[in-house]
């Protein structure tokens, strides 16, 4: 039913509508204040966080570019040093290698130290060579194959001055079949056992080396002969052995010519 201007129902509804509009305006004002306060409260921290993030990303890009440039320089220095080594300019090569440090690339640094050790060996500066190899061994950031190679070479230089047990302790982990240094490390460990008068330990190790086809033929021949001297048979195939001996004799004759 329609209402008239003086209808009491219309008069009762008016305050309700006015109150709803007022509450809506208050609610919007409160929301606006909340946004404003949040912006004031969190705007600076968020902005600072964004700036720090951008600065960190820019810093990373700068560091990466600088590191890449440093790696390129060290690679060039290694190549230059090798060229000088091939030309017989040992002192110049050593001076070039001495400029390489381990801050950028532990692998490049280890390579430089091992090359300096080789130069020292050629010049019969054995103590210097050992020092260079020990630096590689002690560097936990250097690639493990380089550390293992340096350990084998260091022990080979100091073999005659080391106690047999010290040789065994240092090389035993590398004197295992299947490893890349099994032949060289195993032979030195076997000799250390013999120095301790323990042929029962040396013999089986010598046999393993002699029968390992990944070991150089000259090393296999030495360990086979030494194993036989102590009563350990390292010959698996007599025909193969005779072919190997004949091949070695042929190569020796060709070299002699």
Automatic annotation (TrEMBL):
The record, for Pfam families, names: TPR_21
Can you give the residue ranges of the Ancillary SecYEG translocon subunit/Cell division coordinator CpoB TPR domain?
Answer: 41-173
InterPro entries under this entry?
SecYEG/CpoB_TPR (IPR018704), TPR-like_helical_dom_sf (IPR011990)
Q: Which UniProt keywords apply?
A: Membrane, Transmembrane, Transmembrane helix
Entry keyword annotation includes DNA-binding: no
> Which residue windows are coiled coil?
none
The portions of this protein that span the membrane are 42-63
Q: What is this protein called?
A: Tetratricopeptide repeat protein
